[in-house]
Amino acid sequence: MRKYPxxxxxxxxxxxxxxxxxxxxxxxxxxxxNLRDSGVNVIIGNRPGKSFDQAVxxxxxxxxxxxxxMRSDILAVFFPDESAAEIYAEDIAPSxxxxxxxxxxxxxxxxxxxxxxxxxxxxxxxxxxxVGPMVRKLYQEGSGVPALVSVHQDHTGRALNTALGFxxxxxxxxxxxxxxxxxDETETDLFGEQAVICGGLxxxxxxAYDTLVDAGYPPELAFSECAHEVKLVVDLIYEGGFAKxxxxxxxxxxxxxxxxxxxxxxxxxxxxxxxxxNEIRSGEFxxxxxxxxxxxxxxxxxxxxxxxxxxxxxxxxxxxxxxx
Length: 324
Known about the structure:
GO terms for molecular function: ketol-acid reductoisomerase activity; magnesium ion binding; NADP binding. Its cofactor is Mg(2+). This protein is of the alpha/beta class and about 325 residues long. It has helices at about 25-35, 50-55, 65-70, 80-90, 110, 130-140, 160-170, 180-195, 200-215, 220-230, 230-250, 250-265, 265-280, 285-295, 300-310, 310-320; strands at about 5, 20, 40-45, 60-65, 75, 100-105, 120-130, 145-155, 175-180. The radius of gyration is 22 Å and the shape is globular.
């Protein structure tokens, strides 16, 4: 991947511009704070509610989405994937002006065609690879999270510079600003969430926990071995890859893992991963998720409630209490 030679000084690429943060959730709040601390003129556009009130409490100039669009040069869209298209159509699109730049933190709505900005605007991606609180925390500590940058539409001829300046403003220049595309960012992000981070890993942990409990082992011990200790190993992988993991775990653990892991994630699992990726690439998952939103998210809400009431959740709370 190409790394842009961006530094904090490249905040100058958006000097004198008014940036509207549209949507004051986890990412919106973090990036608004970073941009303000970088000297950028930031306003907040949000619908009334808790997020609106939070932005006021944080000391920002807060207004309706429509007013923020009319007053700004750069519009950073942070509404949830499943809500962004509706809010865009109702509150953003009618007030867009020629030469404005739309910044997206995730390519979902642009890539799958739920949002189609007019040709007289710039459209860019600045996707920090970290959750909002981490984006803010690392910035305040003097570092930053890496970000992926892409240009979808360049009406003014300055779209890339705007994206790079924005990335510098949120602190990503202190880490790495990497060239990508809306397609690659969207599809790999969704796949990573589904196959590993939010899907495959929790499913693997739960299955391993159930296996030990069903075999008669204490639930708290099963939770410790299959869930709690995951962070210790993930931190090693994060810092230095699988090689560092093998440098630090016991040889018994390393040998057992390297000779048995492929039996857990075997050919059937790999085929299913390909199926999941194909569902993402074809747009099938995106359509399914948007249909779920239109139906009131009843299926999703029910599944989350099942997770919250599961045995492993109860055991996890008990185990964490034991450590206090």
